[in-house]
Amino acid sequence: MGRILCVVNQKGGVGKTTTAVNLAAALAIADQSCLLVDMDPQCNATSSMGHEPTVGHALVSDAALSEAIVDTKQPKLALLPGSRTFQDIDLLATSDDQQANRVRKHLDSVFDRYDYVLIDCPPSVGELTQTALTASTEVLMPIQCEYFAMEGLTQLIKTIKKVIVATDGRLTFGGILLTMYDPTLELTREVDAEVREFFGDIVFESVVPRDVSLSEAPSHGENVFQYAPRSRGAFAYTQLCMEVLQRD
């Protein structure tokens, strides 16, 4: 059975989409068949893969999910494009159990085709994120190494625990990832120590440094391995991929 990782944080600009895109690419390079699902109305994951958002999101359609999945320039990595259509966003974000179950069944229908499914969520703890969590088996939380890194996490963790109970334990904590890491800054070291002390072994040993290659790659419709395979960012996501595989 495949693993569905929901990449989530209630704050924007923490490297959420960057992590979803590049971890998916790293897993594909590691010979793991992978599907990247864009559930963020901004559709940055879709454009990062060199594709355009769709008119309608496949997760709210009655059609087979496989019909909407597209190939990418990265072998073994497929994409379910996002949509900016307000009606689809509203449907995905509804608190209706029937809609949440539809999303879950859609993703379950492609389990046997992929080793990993990664879901890029919007920067919120709203209904859209909760729908994604309900459909997932694991949560991966990127946390930026900044002063307010821990702020708001209590609400997110409460939401995650609520979904864990509602899904009878299907959802688990997959890991916390420190991003925009600069070891020369005292603040970074302080945040690192605080997060690891609070969350313990759930925090990945791998950290993602500040690297311009990670910011530039999406503008070329590429992941960091295609754009700058020898960069620090590429090395970081390779290390993260190895940890994710070890936690299987």
From TrEMBL:
InterPro entries: AAA_dom (IPR025669), DNA_Partitioning_ATPase (IPR050678), P-loop_NTPase (IPR027417)
Domain spans labelled AAA: 3-169
One matching Pfam family: AAA_31
Source domain of life: Bacteria
Name by which UniProt lists this protein: ParA family protein
Organism lineage: Bacteria, Pseudomonadati, Planctomycetota, Planctomycetia, Pirellulales
